[in-house]
Design goal:
3 helices, Toll_tir_struct_dom_sf, mainly alpha, about 70 residues
């Protein structure tokens, strides 16, 4: 929990539209989750393994874009 609380996020500056920023963040999260969920099918079920450091690493290019 501490690790999650210490993650940096996106900054919404005065020159950016908040709605556009929310769309950008949602898109970045969806792309990251989609790439993380591509796991082998085991016994008919899809195994999804998510690790916070991996998620943070993959989402970093989308953070703090202006």
């Amino acid at each position: 929990m501490t690790e999650a609380a210490n993650l940096s996020g996106w900054e919404i500056s005065g020159s950016r539209n908040e709605a556009e920023m929310v769309e950008e963040i949602a898109g970045a999260v969806m792309r990251t989750l989609e790439s993380m969920s591509r796991s082998p099918v085991i016994g008919g079920d899809i195994q999804i393994e998510t690790e916070l450091p991996d998620f943070h690493r993959k989402s970093r290019p989308f953070q703090n874009q202006s």
